[in-house]
Structures are given as structure tokens and as C-alpha cells.
Amino acid sequence: MDISALVKLTSKAWSLSILQSLHAGVPGRKAPLLAASGAGRTAFGQSLAHLIDIGLLERNPGHGHPLRPEYRLTDQGKRSAAMADAIIGETSSPEDRARLRRAWTVPVLAALQQPSHFADIKRALSPITDRALSQALKSLEDVRWVSRRVDPKSRPPRALYWANGIGATIGRAAAEFA
To answer: Are 66 and 106 members of one domain?
Structure first.
């Protein structure tokens, strides 16, 4: 999985939670997955459809009622589910898990495996806008998952960002699969 696949995977809020639940052995039907993820029905349905569209989930042929289908992980989905389990396993609080559901959190942390300038991060995450990257970095700085240092000697002054603490651990787990 490359960084663009990681961006695509995390574009729906509940994708990582659904994959992690399946990895943990939750039955592949909607009701148990919905209960395990804690998502609302609409957002859950959109994330489930998204995972099917990108080829990480498929309907389990021969299992489940037509109105209550059963889903299973594809081979690529199994690798992604292991990544999701590793990422979510690093968080302990509901606030941290909610932060992981934001679209750019995991890709930004994966891009920050080494100290990087804003432009370098943006280049690594090509579809991201300046505003989205700025907001993601700011929110990650607020919880100390990312650190920022401005080099006053350079003209113009440039900020250097790097993941630390939980952010570094999550970034390594994501980059390992990306």
C-alpha cells in the first residue's frame, strides 16, 4: 500500500474501525460491525461501501441472507486490517480514536517519518490542500503528536515538523504498510 492508497483508505471516517473490527474477529455482518465500530448507520454504510469499492472487502459468496449479507476481507484487506489494528491499538482514549477518524491524520503522520518542511509534506500527500494540511498539523500539534520548530536563521523562516510520541508510533505503523 502506497501513501496514495493510505489517503484513499482513510478518506471515510469509519474505514479503519471496520477493518480493525474484522481483524479482531467480529463477525462480518452489518449489525455486529456497526455495534463494534460505534458509527452511525449512514456513516457506517458509506465507509462499508467505500471499503468494497477500493477492494478491501467483498461479499462472502454463499453466506448470509440476501438482505443481511456477510462480508469478508480480501487479501489486500487483510494487510490493511492488520495495519488498522496496529494503528488503533496505539490509542487508548476515545478522543484519540476520534482524531484517527479525521481524513488526513494518519497520512500526515505516515509522511512525517523524518523531519519535514510544509512543502515536503504537501508534496508527499499530493491531493491535500494547504488549508487541510495546515489544520491537520495544527490539531496534531495541539495534542503533541507532532512537533514544530521554526528555524529563525533561514530566510524566510521555515517550520520543520516531525511526529513524536503516539504520533510517531502511529506514523511508523502506517508507513510500515504504506
So the answer is: no
Are 100 and 171 found together in one domain? Answer: yes
Per-residue pLDDT band at 64 (split at 50, 70, 90): low
Residue 178: pLDDT band with limits 50, 70, 90: low
Quick one: pLDDT at residue 1? Answer: 52
pLDDT at 72 over 80: yes
Question: For the chain, what is the domain count?
Answer: 2
Mean pLDDT, all residues of the chain: 91
- Among 89, 107, 134, identify where a domain stops: 89
74, 135: one domain:
no
The last residue of a domain, from among 56, 89, 122 = 89
Is there a contact between 106 and 170 (Cβ–Cβ < 8 Å)? yes
CATH classification at residue 82: 1.10.10.10
Residue 79: HSE in the Cβ half-sphere, 13 Å Cα cutoff: 13
Whether residue 87 contacts residue 174, with contact meaning beta carbons closer than 8 Å, is answered with: yes
